[in-house]
Amino acid sequence: MNKTALIILIGIICSSCQSSRKGSINANKGQKPNIIYILADDLGYGDLGYNGQKKIHTPNIDQLANEGMVFTNHYAGSAVCGPSRASLMTGLHTGHGIIRENPSWTASGKPATFDENTITVADELKKAGYITGVIGKWGLAELCGKGVPNKQGFDYFYGFNRHRTAHHYYADSVYENQTQIRIEGNNVLEKKGKYIHNLFTEKAVDFINTNKDEKFFLYLAYTLPHYELTIPDEYKSQYKDLDWPLREMKPGHYLHDKNGHVTYASMVSKLDSDVGLINQLLKDLGIGENTIVIFTSDNGHEYDNIKAEFFNSNGEFKGKKRDLYEGGIHSPFVMKWPQKITPGSVNHHISAFWDFYPTACEIAGVRPSGKIDGISFLPSVIGDNENQKTHEYLYWEFNEKRGPVQAIRQNEWKAVRYKGKNMELYNLNEDSGEENNLAEKYPDKVKEFEILMKIGRTEHPEFPLEKMHNRKD
Any idea where the Sulfatase N-terminal domain is (predicted)? Predict the structure, then answer.
């Protein structure tokens, strides 16, 4: 028996042994659910109606929340795109990952990338018989070598391998599997042609239709509402005539539309509309009952001005993208699974991106192959809270611009430390906005977190906790 077959067999046996557990997952192929993981890009926790947004309309994501389970304590892998997505794929937090910052923030200036030793959640799901696809922003293969999705467990890929090419919504080329293809008629500078988000949705619909009779995992990594702020005028109708003040956007690397507020709201609502389209497609195909749909964001928002908020995109939290305060890493997270989740459920379990890997493995009936930081949150999803394991702590490190900075969440406590500065300590149960620094009041707790920040990471030559400089590639 080869290694792959042995791993599958162990997973099936393991799942069968758990058959008496409340709501347990049957590992037989016919019982495994499809998994669709929809990732927004730079969407704030407070940008969604179910989290209190008043100006931007998100009825479809709000409906997803009504039909599924809302996680109140879910965290992104990082405060920026690249390392957050790497954490999601590998089950490792940024203290252990091989991609801990965006591409140009390394000691050598050379981008870190996945290699032949990297094991992803897609690798694991393929072992369980899943057809795997990623559509949208991969952003983890800057060198387009061994880090490309088709060499990291994905059967199908349509999107961007590199980070910066995903910054434009009228890109003139995209990868389909390992072939770079021209998008005829597209002009990046003139913002003409096919809106890339629409192409992503079309490909997602094709993937679902093609594999509707199989078990599939679709990682739908949208780029909305990441800069650049631009969208066809036809999607601005519900906002363009409102009495909103003009926040004029200046084009540069990002070729923004002029009216920031209208454009941003329209981009979020377009994202919402296509989440609704995907959800309706599943129902129309008759596979919605056995399909898990997850919606979340890779980090905090970029757009809203936290000194003069208009949308209140970070909700009750402090900070935004590139902060390790809650506004930068506390993500909206909704999970719908009609066979297992009671509509309108709320989950307070503390979880993070690196937990998706083991959760997906447990759902599929396989064991993670490598060493990971994640803990499956499946028990809390299916109501088996007494068997839900919890993290001793969650760890992040971030080293761009104002870094290096580290953060830890342990139960109700949150610690943030910028190198060379005193540690900040917050009780999130009493102070979710991180306004009241309790470090002087609890010196013993500070000492505990200082130890955790040392043992919570491994050294990596490209990611020292020293002042870094952006080396443009």
Answer: 33-366
Longest dimension (CA), the chain: 68
Q: Would you mind telling me the total number of residues written for the chain in this entry?
A: 473
* pLDDT tens-digit map of 302-347: 999 999 999 999 999 999 999 999 999 999 999 999 989 999 999 9
* H-run or E-run covering 127: helix 121-127
Q: Helix, strand, or coil here: 63?
A: helix
Q: What is the pLDDT of residues 250-294, one digit of tens each?
A: 999 999 999 999 999 999 999 999 999 999 999 999 999 999 999
DSSP letters for 326-344 = HHHHB--EEEE-TTT--TT
Provide the token pair at 389: 């394991």
Residue 456 corresponds to which tokens in the numbers above?
């919570």
Rounded CA-CA distance 47/304 in Å is 10
CA distances from 401 to 107, 268, 318, 467 (A): 14, 27, 18, 8
- What secondary structure letter does DSSP report for 129? T
Q: Is 170:188 a contact under the CB 8 Å cutoff? A: yes
* Amino acid letter, residue 154: F
Q: Which two tokens stand for residue 428?
A: 């999130």
- Listed in sequence order, the residues at least 6 apart from 333 whose beta carbon sits closer than 8 Å to its beta carbon are 70, 71, 74, 294, 295, 296, 351
Q: Around Cβ 154, how many Cβ atoms within 10 Å?
A: 25
What does the alpha-carbon distance between residue 180 and residue 346 come to, in Å, rounded to a whole number? 43
Query: What CATH superfamily classification does 32-392 receive?
Result: Alkaline Phosphatase, subunit A (3.40.720.10)
Report field, pTM of the whole predicted structure over 0.70: yes
How do strand 216-221 and strand 131-137 relate by DSSP bridges?
A: parallel
Distance between CA atoms of 164 and 107, rounded to whole angstroms?
Answer: 19
Contact between 450 and 443 under an 8 Å Cβ cutoff? The reply is: no
DSSP per-residue letters across 3-47? HHHHHHHHHHHHHHHTTTSTTPPP-SGGGPPEEEEEEESS--GGG
Assess contact for 81 and 298: CB atoms under 8 A.
yes
The amino acid that residue 371 corresponds to is: K
**How many CB atoms are located within 10 Å of the residue 30 CB?**
7
> Strand 216-221 to strand 34-40: parallel, antiparallel, or no bridges (unpaired)?
parallel
Tell me the Ramachandran region of residue 272: left when phi exceeds 0, alpha when psi lies from -120 to 50, beta otherwise: alpha
